[in-house]
Amino acid sequence: MAIEDDVLVIGGGLAGASAALGAARGGASVRLVTHKENTLRNASGLIDVLGYHGSDEPIAEPFEAIPDLPDEHPYRKVGVDAVREALALFDEVVGELYEGGHTERNALSPTYGGRIKPTSRYPTSAAAGLASKEGDTLLVGFETVTAFDAPLAAERLDPSVPFEVRGVTIAFPGDLRSDARITRLARALDADELTERGRRVGTREALAERVAEHLGDAERVGFPAVLGDEEHHEVRASLGGELGVPVFEVPMGPPSLPGMRLEDGLYEALDEEGVRVESGNPVVGYTEEGGRITAVSVDRGRREIPYHADQFVLATGGLVGKGIDSSREGVFEPVFGCHVPQPAERYEWFHDEAFDDQPYARFGVAVDGGLRPLDPEGRPEFSNLRAAGAVLGGYDMAREKSGSGVSLSTGLVAGRRASEDIQ
Amino acid sequence: MSDADHTDEFEPVQVFPTTEMDLRPGADDCYKCSTCDSECPVAAVDDDFPGPKFQGPEQWRLKRKDDAEIDDSVMSCSNCMRCDSACPSGVPLSQMHNTARGSYVENGMDKLSREYIRNRILSNYGTLAWFGSKVPRLTNFLMSSSVVQTVNERVMGITSEREFPEFAQQTFREWWEERGGNATSKKRASEAREQTGRGGAEVESDEKRVAYFHGCYSNYNTPEVGKAMVRVFESFGYEVMVPPQKCSGTPMFANGMLPDARRAAETNVAELSAAIEDGADIIASCTSCSLSLRQEYPELFDLDGIEDVSAHTYEALEYLRIHEDLSGALEESEIDSRKFAYHAPCHARNQGLAGQAIELLDGIEGAEAEDVGDSCSGISGTYGWKEEKYDTSMKIGAEMFHHMEDAEPDAGMTECPTCAMQMEHGTGYEIRHPLEVMEEALVD
Amino acid sequence: MTDRVDALVVGGGSTGCGIARDLAMRGLSVTLVEQGNLTHGTTGRMHGLLHSGGRYAVSDKASARECIEENRVLREIAGHCVEMTGGLFVQLEDDPDEYFERKLEGCRECDIPAEVLTAEEAREREPYLTRDVKRAIAVPDGAVDPFRLCVANAADAVEHGARIETHAPVTDVLVEGGEVVGVEVEHESGPGKRVHKEPGTTEEIRAEHVINATGAWAGRVGEMAGVDVEVRPSKGVMVIMNVRQVDTVVNRCRKKGDADIVVPHETTAILGTTDVEVEDPEDYPEERWEVDLMIETLSELVPILAEARTIRSFWGVRPLYEPPGTGTTDPTDITRDFFLLDHEDRDSLPGMTSIVGGKFTTYRMMAEKISDHVCGKLDVSAECRTAEEPLPGSEDFSILRDYMDEFGLRSPIGRRSVQRLGSRADEVLKTMDPNPVVCDCEAVTRAEIRDAIEGAGSDLNAVRIRTRASMGNCQGGFCCHRMASELHPEYDAETVSAAWDELVQERWKGERHALWGEGLSQAALNYQLHGTTMSLDRAPEVAEFAAFDSGAETATGGGKSDGD
Q1: Most buried residue among A181, A233, B158, C272 by CB atoms closer than 10 A?
Q2: B28 pLDDT exceeds 50?
Q3: Is the pLDDT at C451 greater than 80, yes or no?
Q4: CA atoms within 13 A on the CB side of B415
Q5: Could you tell me which residues come within 8 angstroms of residue A9 by beta carbon, excluding any fewer than 6 positions away?
Q6: pLDDT per residue over B190-201, tens digit each?
Q7: Close Cβ partners of A289 (under 8 Å, ≥ 6 residues apart)
Q8: Are C211 and C353 in contact (CB under 8 A)?
Q9: Is pLDDT at A229 greater than 80 in this prediction?
Q10: By C-alpha distance, which of A130, A117, A99 is closest to C552?
């Protein structure tokens, strides 16, 4: 048999990466297969652990609040210590890309919708802009980046934070078409392209010039998250240098450059850890023997290739990542057909207000203490299958602001347990 | 992120008066996440190109039956197909682009324009190469002459920045015939099978048979890749057949020359179907060729046997990795110590093959392989040859050049002949195909 | 304001707006009041079919004749709201021949051009039709955008001096000396264009004559005046598909029944419908069986519908009416004809006329008849001109003109913009400022959004119905905030926030009826975008900022600024 590993992780997002790292550090040979690009670039790049529970008041000490969560919550399955360890692993792996590891407290980040959000780790590019750090702030938007209206975000933020926030909209230097993508702006800053023929001024300097006239007393300047891709450190440094105050990005997306940078960082770590990564084809089926999965089949366009392993981790994502799918008849987990608890009546999947406590937001597989998906009778579906991340049910990542923390911690535990169980 | 049940798959039908197909239902899968845009190498450097989301699901969804018009920006798409491998939701992006481009060329482009004629010539590289290979020395001499290059750029719009690939003194097919064709291969394969199985691989029967789709480039320019393929497969006991064939169509899709591609596909599908009847699987050494036969053929053409050809086509290493204990065999092998900077072609990525070369090379003693990142090389076949696209092509490639230089390799490595051209052009390194290294490791 | 207007129209649907336009063009002073947005009631909740009359050609020939007549008029006066898709009555193998023949005869009797197509011809025209097609009748059905049509009528009425007040529910009908003399309205945000957060006011509007054009709500207005208007509201579901599976209106050619029509509408296809009598036009159950029935039954006709993506569903209530004592039990048997109730004749209450029943396609004709009637009452002799004068946007309108380069837009965006704006395209789209696309799904640019805001105030739902922004795949997930941004800074953050929230909730209202497959994925993505990334679901206030992490001392990107 051609393709065989100790642990096969299905899914290449935060949970899959964390699982693969966990398993590899446990000494297993690990392969990670992922279908398409993961949803990291849909997310803002902030690492939320737990922002709200029970009330509208944001949580400052997330670890203190975890024990209050209901029993079916993934955090309760893995325990507070595992969450701490997962964040420590994250800090180690992403290095300078992130901050926030110096404390167990949440920070408050401004959002591009002009609200604030409790979060545990933030990209270095966003660090200067924390709402929980005082400092009068200028937000800068670009005429053609319709997703971020800086004056509106500023006016919405200003009354709720203990410092002044102003906003201004300017034209991005360089005469780009009005439908230029975010990646195009980032690239112009990365390469510091000349803005006009004949005028030897780079995009960074030209941008700083345009912002400078609006700077006033601002002690920091925030931009939509388009400040460079590969060269983001340099881009921020040169803008900050020109302006004389720290410069930060307001996390946004999709598409999210901070998410893409995080993805690059994680995949580098996987590579260093010796994890074999394959992307491009979906896992569509499996073979089983006596309650154990022996192999999964990977669809390579009109034929299926078996991938053998001893242990498997399902980290295919939730409704957005298509790790959980649905039809008019019901909600299901498409790879292994694991049971997904749900109301039988489709009209009980939702509530009538958009931001009600939505039942559909909690859809996912139920697991035992070892993160093994459970059948309707509460027995493990397979003895060597674990689930991690958004494919898990029992939590609402949007309402709680807990998505990344759940993915990291359940990923780590699933990967670790898988490596321990290798036969 | 599995999409196990493609229950929402649709069969495109003829609706629009001027395009082959109605791809509007493909827009159902789009949930606007823009992952495709963020992966598009062209949109990142060229704001005249509004990105795959607009080109694909948005443009299609806005169509009514009487709307024939296609936005001309579709011609800036390089057909790298990274959007396909990006989309988490199964939108048939490249199919939409290919179809729209075909329709644009058919209806929106002046057939006497320089651009049309240039694109037609570039996309029919196989024909050009056939002439060139008849008198390789003369052609090589002419093509490298600065006068010819200047004329090409001024008159044809083909950039003078690039050097034309050299034609080999002997094509792969000439070598193959001289070597005794299929009869020789049969013999060698059976000899290999009689020896102790490679790396413990099981020798099942004498029915191990593959048909090699060499494509234009291995035939006319780099026959050493084709020879390596033949020798490696024979060493695993496979009898190789080399059926008659035409261009896989890749450059034609990229230029919207769908009628040309279809004509070539008719020949290829007929010939390859016959090989499949004879018990062979189809092997390509060029990842664009294998992608075309696998994905674009059934998406764009409705020919007898085309699904079957698609289902039986493999990239060379992929095939051995699935059917043989390739990594086992490589672990026992060795080459002269060298470091390779490997670039995964976008079209390999699209087939889920981006990681295999590194994984296999890592197992060979003496070989060191470094992945130079997941960016696009920027040449995308004929794209980077166009005078007006040259700068864009080099901007896209910059990241990869940079990583290659950082790696300080002895040579570059990739499966795609045009990526190889770009890598060499951008860095000066000599570029090898993984099969050539396999040959060195596995064949005495 | 105590000035007495000649005519006060209650109801901003197609009939009310049509009447306001007609009367204003005849020189009367007119005020129209509407409780919600224009089209808030039934007009905004229909399938957008421009009848050829074919649907009534068997059961109601008088209606059929009116339809084909008005169909021709609307093509002339409202070209930019109408798409002449053509329509098919499709007979499947098991459908009775007899009905098909009667339909064909009926069309011919009513002067509706009708052509019989073989199965092959029908499938050539509409390739996604089932292979079980036996034959079809082609008729000149079309698709019409009721929002744009209604808004164009209102805009033209304003052009001719009328006053239009939306979000102004009638709280009382003023009856003095046994005569209706006006109404009392509550301006939810003051008179004029709607601006969120403006304080409400009330106003008495006096008029020579009051026209109750409130459709399914006519009974309520009647009650305020002390008269009985026996409207029998009947609900029907419309299920919206994400793309057009058909480019022709496709009807099932069999005797009336639920789920028998697919209408291509702008970028979507609309499946309809059910017919169930309800008590209250505002409060009735929106049920799963109705949605499922549309998909299951209509996929017999167009099989791809079974797998295609549904983006939302909505319900409308037909303002059915039958004269007292008719006693029809099945709502599908109630006539679709309209009735003019002269309350002076009927209830000895002068000063008010109600219009009930009827259908969208003949709105103009109904408006003409009512206007004739009102003019008779007021002794005005002006002639109706609404059938000849094009609506704003349809003057010299030709979709074929070369608009692409003119506005610097990508061709499909330019094409869609012009399809929506008609002859107003120049005025709206020619701008020196950057004009990025705000709604990607429907290709709506900033210039078009801003134009709509000029007409609609801070009301993003009114902007939506004018432009279609937020009506595509993502159902506002990626554009509600972008649309809201366009209100700012003209409107302050508080106003913008209220308008934004309202739009998000309105989108969810329809989206929740399409929560499976791609629709559920989209909903989850939108929820995460709005909840996780933007944190819109939470109040911004924080009790104690100091309890939170303010960054590490050594923060590399943060510099050493820790505030004051």
Answers
A1: A181
A2: yes
A3: yes
A4: 30
A5: A16, A19, A20, A23, A30, A31, A32, A33, A275, A312, A313, A315, A415
A6: 888 887 565 444
A7: none
A8: yes
A9: yes
A10: A99
- One-letter amino acid for residue C273 of the chain: T
Of the candidates B83, A363, B1, B6, the residue with the CA atom closest to the CA atom of residue C527: A363
Q: How far apart are CA B394 and CA B379, in angstroms?
A: 8
| Type of residue numbered C130 | T
Closest CA to A152 of C448, C539, C497: C497
**Cα within 13 Å of Cα(C20), Cβ side:** 35
SS3 A340: coil
Degrees to nearest 5, angle at CA C64 with C62 and C67: 115
Side-chain half-sphere exposure of C71, counting CA atoms within 13 A? 26
Closest CA to C265 of C239, C228, C297: C239
Q: Could you report the per-residue pLDDT of C73-117, keeping only the tens digit for each?
A: 999 999 999 999 999 999 999 999 999 999 999 999 999 999 999
b (16+ CB within 10 A) / e for A53-64: beeeebbbebbe
Strand partners, A289: A292
CB contacts of C307 in chain B (<8 Å) are: 7-10
pTM over 0.85: yes
pLDDT, one tens digit per residue, over A268-281 is: 999 999 999 999 88
Quick one: how far is CA A305 from the chain centroid?
30
Dist CA A400 CA C350 (whole Å):
61
3-state SS, residue A273: coil
Enter the DSSP assignment of A121: B
Contact criterion met (CB below 8 Å) for C114 and C54: yes
Strand partners, C8: C31, C210
Mutate to test the interface with A, among C310, C435, C520 (most CBs of A within 10 A): C520
Q: At a CB cut-off of 8 Å and minimum separation 6, what does B196 contact?
A: none
Mode of pairing for the β-strands spanning A199-202 and A220-224: unpaired
Sheet of strand A137-142: strand arrangement:
A165-170, A137-142, A220-224, A247-250
- Give yes or no for a contact between C467 and C442, defined as CB atoms under 8 angstroms apart: yes
Give the phi and the psi of residue C279 in degrees, each rounded to 5: -75, -50
CA distance B444 to C14: 85
Pick the closest to residue C19 from C281, C252, C211 (CA basis).
Answer: C211
**Is the peptide bond between A255 and the residue preceding it cis, with omega within 30 degrees of 0?**
yes
Q: Smallest Cα–Cα separation from B101: which of B114, B116, B86? A: B116
The token duo for C216 is 């399914």
Q: At A117, is the secondary structure helix, strand, or coil? A: strand
CA separation (Å) from B202 to A124, A126, A418, B109, B327?
Answer: 54, 57, 31, 55, 14
Contacts with C, B 38-77, CB within 8 Å: 50, 53-54, 57-59, 61-65, 67, 69-73
Q: With the CA atoms of C318, C324, C325 and C327 taken in that order, what torsion angle do they form, in degrees rounded to the nearest 10?
A: 10
Copy the structure tokens of residue A23: 């398993």
Determine the Cα–Cα distance for residues C222 and C215; give it in Å rounded to an integer: 11
Which residues numbered 294-313 in A keep a CB inside 8 Å of some CB on B?
298, 300-303, 305
CB contact under 8 A, B47 and A179: yes
Question: Any chain A CB within 8 A of the CB of C440?
Answer: no
Asked if the C-beta of C80 comes within 8 angstroms of chain B's C-beta atoms, the answer is no
Q: Dig out the tokens for B97 from the structure.
A: 């682009």
CA distance linking residue A422 with residue A383, whole number of Å: 11
| Cα–Cα dist A311/A19, whole Å | 12
Which amino acid makes up residue A305?
Answer: I
Residue of A nearest to B355 (CA): A278
Q: Report how far residue B42's alpha carbon sits from residue B83's, in angstroms, rounded to the nearest whole number.
A: 11
Those residues with Cβ within 8 angstroms of residue B402's Cβ, 6 or more apart along the chain or in another chain: none
- pLDDT tens for B130-184 read 877 888 887 888 777 777 778 788 887 888 888 888 889 999 999 999 999 999 9
